[in-house]
Amino acid sequence: MNHSSFLSKPGELDELELRTAALHWLCEADVAAKVAGVEAMAASWKNAEMTLDKQRVLAATLSIPGRPQLPALVPPREVKHRSMASLEGRAAMIHALAHIEFNAINLALDAIWRFAGMPEDYYVDWLRVAREEAYHFSLLVSHLQTLGFAYGDFSAHNSLWELTEKTSHDILARMALVPRMMEARGLDASPRTRAKLAQAGDEDAAAIIDIILRDEIGHVAIGNHWYGWLCEARQLEPLATFAALALQHKAPILRGPFNLEARRAAGFSEPELLALIEETKSL
Predict the structure, then answer these.
(1) Phi, psi at residue 3, to the nearest 5°?
(2) Is 179 within 8 Å of 224 (Cβ atoms)?
(3) CB atoms < 10 A from the CB of 76, how many?
(4) Which of 29, 43, 152, 272 has the fewest CB atoms within 10 Å, i.e. is most exposed?
(5) Alpha helices by DSSP H, 3-119
(6) How remote is the C-alpha of 58 from its chain's centroid?
(7) pLDDT in tens, 132-182
(8) Are 66 and 34 in contact (CB under 8 A)?
């Protein structure tokens, strides 16, 4: 693929093909350029200035995902936990959330370019996710700057992207385990995170969490929709298939408490929620 045909200025994405553009911005290492590129891509699609080739099989020629040199990536257990009572502790929390959103931008772009042959609505859905994740990232980074810090000032872990890589061979596994498991964990964590930030007196950060939770319910719902669609197309039973995929890919064990209200809003069925609760009882 000829990357020289792409221009990094947001207004210069006209007439590009959506999945090819998604791959380009996924490979982009400059954070500001990636965010601007995603916003431009969404605007160009909305204005009917981009085409979509659903069948073309694309190949990446650059490193995936493009990322800046910082933050340093370490195993989850090596990420330092700081007291929320301190400014640095709050900043570390905001930074961790920003890093999750950065990875979420990349996984949405990856879902667009990697998997050919899906209905147009699938690609439009994941474009929406990419745009909203870029918005969340921008909100968090801007707030981080008001605290005197920048993205990259703290170390971070890469668990979300690691599971994205593990499921790169099969769209069913991707839809099952990334939006429906990893991103759904964010639904569970958001109320506690918001409470901690509000208790620390950071109402602006708490308001950002409200926006993220609202949008993430929609993102998990997209994953649920396409997982169900794929199970129906392949004549698979969703609950048993999910359990098998989680075991096959050594997905993390989920622990409560669960945000059942948000999970219901995101399309999880009552039998699935019951199975989730029963599984945690055995841990």
Answers:
(1) -75, -15
(2) yes
(3) 10
(4) 29
(5) 18-27, 31-46, 87-114
(6) 21
(7) 999 999 999 999 999 999 999 999 988 878 888 999 999 999 999 999 999
(8) yes
- The span from the first CA to the last CA of the chain, in angstroms, equals 48
- How far is it, in rounded angstroms, from Cα 213 to Cα 191? 9
Q: What is the DSSP letter of 125?
A: H
Q: What is the pLDDT of residues 108-120, one digit of tens each?
A: 999 999 999 999 9
pTM over 0.70: yes
With beta carbons less than 8 A apart as the criterion, state whether 132 and 187 touch. no
Could you give the CA distance from residue 71 to residue 120 in angstroms, rounded to a whole number?
35
Token digits of residue 204 = 């602006």
Which residues, including other chains, have CB under 8 Å from residue 190's CB and lie 6 or more apart?
Answer: 209, 212, 213, 216, 259, 262
Q: Measure the CA–CA gap between 180 and 26, rounded to whole angstroms.
A: 21
Preceding amide of 252 cis, omega within 30: no
Helix 31-46 to helix 87-114 angle (10° resolution) is 50
Instruction: Identify whether the C-beta of residue 116 lies closer than 8 Å to the C-beta of residue 57.
Output: yes
Ordered domains of the chain (ranges, CATH): 8-281 (1.20.1260.10)
**Rounded distance, CA 164 to CA 114, Å?**
11
51 φ, ψ (degrees, to nearest 5): -100, 170
Six-digit token string for 244: 């098998």
Q: Quick one: 224 exposed, middle or buried, by C-beta within 10 A (0-12, 13-18, 19+)? A: buried
Q: What is the CA radius of gyration of the chain?
A: 19
Measured distance CA(78)–CA(154) in Å, rounded: 12
